[in-house]
Design goal:
The protein is of the alpha+beta class. It is built from 15 helices and 27 strands. Helix content is 28%, strand content 25%.
Length: 608
């Protein structure tokens, strides 16, 4: 549940965080605006001094009889005229106190009343009768609006029934009113401080605080506060997939399998350093495995979970334990190779050909990957070789003057050709990771930077091969879908199948942003010409470079529209997927919706 909760916490936090910014900014602005101007006091005339009630007026009772159904009658002044105001529920009427005649607030009288309440330099404009206005939203009856042409765009509102001055509004108040609306989140009436949006934001803030505390607690384990030497000793026994025992290592109770092996010199494949985000460090639990966690479910297929596969970085050593590792003895083995050739196949995809010191064995299957040992380095940026035809692409990147890696790491790269097609050479395909290019700039990728500075003759150390992404030995129709550096394992698999005389239908759908980013286009087209059972489909997501001969869109959607949705025997196909995480997730969801069983979908998710 934790990854899902982290994801939800992040995005809800973004929404609530934006509202917190609005609350803070709007509150600050309302505090900075001058109070007298907001209240309309600046050009509001003082109320006239109380005057004596004249003796020549009618008695209130006479007017009350004339008003008929009026329940209350009060006396007052309308400019210099004494009046009675009769109240009958919501209805209000005015009567001249001397004559008893009804008084109507017409345009001229409204103008005179507005001028009497105003002390500024502006001149009144023609009064406008309104049924309702947002600027005097609490007044539900008709009102007169009288504008004055002063610097504040003052407007005086008067009741159309009684002539009472309701409000003085101006440009400062109108600005205040916008901030008020943002502050109370009542975007319709600007008056309800307990509207559903405010309540929802409040509940969201409370939920955010509670989940934040929960995630804080979930991010730490009690064992992390206990020194390793104080914890109980455990034994971790490692087996190869064929059942042969490789090694037993000592560990401290509470350590994860990933940490325990790393402390004993065994570095499991990982691009996230045990952060549960890359899914590379999987092992198979021997015995009754613990229930899979959310991180296990996020990275491992259901079929693997059923037979005990778990992420080593998420598997604590609470007791002695036995696990199988896919690489077997290769995990402890370090190989050496010499760089023979480095070729730029696209601006940011580079093919590196290595000649290993020892001839590679049959375990170097198409789909396997190597762990390149990236040493610590500090190199000038110009060590990256940039072909003339790619200078424009590299010039757009904002790279640091010095490229550095302060700590040795390992990075995973798939074989992009079968070794029997390269006379025992190891061919890798590496995408350059430029890091973030915005203000929060992050350095370029440590592994790709290292590979892009290699020259023929350089020495490289690596471990492997690893991985279980491999061709299933059958004659079923095969559909390959990939993108980016996912070209590498899929290319190796397709070359291997065709060179071995495969007769089944083989489809390869590959997605790139533009034609310039797509590697091996001519090679794939040539394979399709020479092999009637192989079809090659390049899909470009940007329309600008698409012509009639190319497919436009997202690769999984194109494969669905042009092949999968009308395929007569979809359940008889095997699928092989590799590419960027978003593409991989979308394609797996698509196949799931089409009813393709997980057992028929092989994928390689190494966060390329």
């Amino acid at each position: 549940m934790t990854p899902w909760m982290r994801w939800l916490h992040k995005w809800v936090g973004l929404l609530i965080g934006l509202q917190f910014v609005l609350w803070m900014a709007s509150g600050l602005m309302m505090g900075l605006l001058p109070h007298d101007k907001v209240q309309g006091h600046e050009f509001r005339a003082h109320a006239p001094a109380p005057r004596a009630w004249p003796a020549d007026v009618l008695a209130a009772g006479e007017v009350l009889k004339q008003a008929g159904s009026a329940q209350v009658i009060v006396s007052g002044w309308l400019l210099d005229r004494p009046v009675y105001q009769a109240l009958d529920g919501k209805r209000q009427r005015l009567f001249d106190a001397r004559t008893g005649r009804a008084v109507v607030i017409d345009r001229e009288l409204a103008r005179a009343l507005a001028v009497a309440s105003y002390s500024g330099p502006g001149k009144p404009q023609t009064p406008i009768l309104l049924d309702w206005t947002q600027e005097v939203r609490d007044h539900q009856a008709r009102s007169w609006r009288v504008d004055f042409d002063d610097a504040q765009d003052t407007t005086v509102y008067l009741s159309a029934q009684t002539g009472e001055v309701l409000e003085h509004r101006n440009s400062t108040w109108r600005l205040f009113d916008v901030f008020w609306m943002l502050h109370i989140m009542d975007y319709a009436n600007r008056s309800n401080f307990n509207n559903p949006l405010v309540i929802g934001a409040g509940i969201g803030g409370l939920w955010l605080a509670l989940t934040g505390v929960w995630l804080l607690v979930a991010s730490f384990h009690l064992r992390e506060f206990v020194p390793q030497r104080w914890r109980r000793a455990r034994e971790l026994t490692v087996y190869a997939p064929n059942g042969s025992k490789l090694r037993t290592v000592k560990a401290a109770a509470g350590d994860s399998v990933y940490v325990a092996l790393a402390r004993n010199g065994l570095q499991l494949p990982s691009n996230c350093g045990g952060g549960q985000s890359c899914g590379l460090c999987e092992v198979r639990y021997r015995g009754v495995p613990p229930a899979p966690t959310a991180a296990d479910r996020a990275h491992l297929s259901e079929s693997k979970l059923k037979i005990g596969h778990r992420l080593a970085c998420n598997l604590p050593l609470d007791a002695d334990m036995e696990v199988e590792v896919a690489g077997g003895a290769s995990l402890w083995t370090e190989h050496e190779a010499t760089v023979e050739r480095v070729s730029a196949v696209t601006p940011f995809l580079r093919e590196i050909v290595l000649k290993p010191a020892q001839p590679p064995g049959p375990e170097y299957q198409p789909g396997a990957y190597l762990q390149v040992h990236v040493p610590d380095y500090e190199l000038p940026c110009d060590r990256i070789v940039r072909p003339d035809e790619h200078h424009g692409d590299w010039a757009a990147l904002d790279l640091p003057d010095t490229l550095s890696n302060r700590e040795a790491v390992r990075r995973s790269y798939s074989l992009s050709l079968p070794i029997d097609a390269t006379d025992g050479r190891l061919t890798l395909l590496a995408r350059f990771s430029p890091g973030r290019q915005d203000r929060k700039r992050q350095p370029p990728g440590k592994g790709s930077t290292y590979l892009y500075t290699l020259q023929p003759g350089d020495r490289v150390n690596f471990s492997g091969p690893f991985g279980d992404f491999a061709i299933r030995p059958n004659a079923r129709e095969k559909v390959f879908i990939g993108g980016g550096a996912g070209m590498a394992p899929l290319r190796a698999m397709i070359h291997s199948l065709l060179s071995q005389g495969a007769q089944e239908r083989i489809h390869y759908w590959y997605g790139a942003r533009v034609l310039r980013d797509a590697p091996y286009v001519d090679e794939m087209a040539s394979l399709a010409q020479r092999n009637a059972n192989f079809s090659w489909h390049l899909v470009l997501s940007e329309a600008a470079e698409c012509d009639d001969a190319l497919v436009r869109g997202l690769v999984h959607e194109a494969a669905h529209d042009r092949l999968l949705k009308d395929h007569p025997a979809l359940l008889d196909c095997d699928f092989y997927l590799c590419g960027p995480p978003a593409m991989l997730a979308a394609t797996r969801q698509l196949l799931h919706r089409l009813g393709v069983p997980d057992e028929q979908v092989a994928f390689d998710d190494f966060k390329i």
